[in-house]
């Protein structure tokens, strides 16, 4: 499972990428199971969005350019952005 949340970065948001991970195991005597997740939080600089291909370009804090296919629920947000906008993004990967 993956979850993505984005919003306009606040002036005080740093460009530092934060990554957290964790896992839990079912207690003894319970049905066996394990759950884990990774959470990444960062601020990126918006470059462009192509509504035909539904691809957004952003610059990561290390200077690399990243192209991402924009999900349906985030397309209006991407279309409203201007080059240079700072975007706060949080991504949760759970399994």
Summarize the structure.
This protein has 95 residues and is mostly beta strands. 5% of the residues lie in helices and 54% in strands. The chain has one domain.
Give descriptors for this structure.
single chain; 95 residues; mainly beta; six-stranded antiparallel sheet; elongated
Task: Provide structural commentary.
The chain has 95 residues and is mostly beta strands. The protein has one domain. Helices cover 5% and strands 54% of the residues. It has 1 helix and 6 strands, in the order βββββαβ. Strands 1, 2, 3, 4, 5 and 6 form a 6-stranded antiparallel β-sheet that branches. The chain is elongated and about 55 Å long. It starts with a strand and ends with a strand. The model has no long low-confidence stretch (mean pLDDT 88).
What's the topology here?
Elements: E1 2-8, E2 18-25, E3 34-50, E4 55-59, E5 65-69, H1 75-79, E6 86-94
């Amino acid at each position: 499972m993956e979850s993505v949340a984005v919003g306009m970065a606040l002036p005080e948001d740093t460009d530092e990428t934060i990554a957290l991970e964790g896992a839990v195991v079912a207690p003894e005597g319970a049905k066996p199971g394990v759950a884990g997740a990774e959470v990444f939080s960062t601020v990126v600089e918006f470059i462009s969005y192509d509504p035909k291909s539904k691809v957004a370009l952003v610059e990561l804090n290390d200077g690399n350019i990243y192209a991402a296919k924009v999900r349906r629920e985030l397309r209006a947000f991407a279309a409203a952005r201007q080059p240079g906008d700072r975007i706060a993004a949080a991504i949760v990967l759970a399994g």
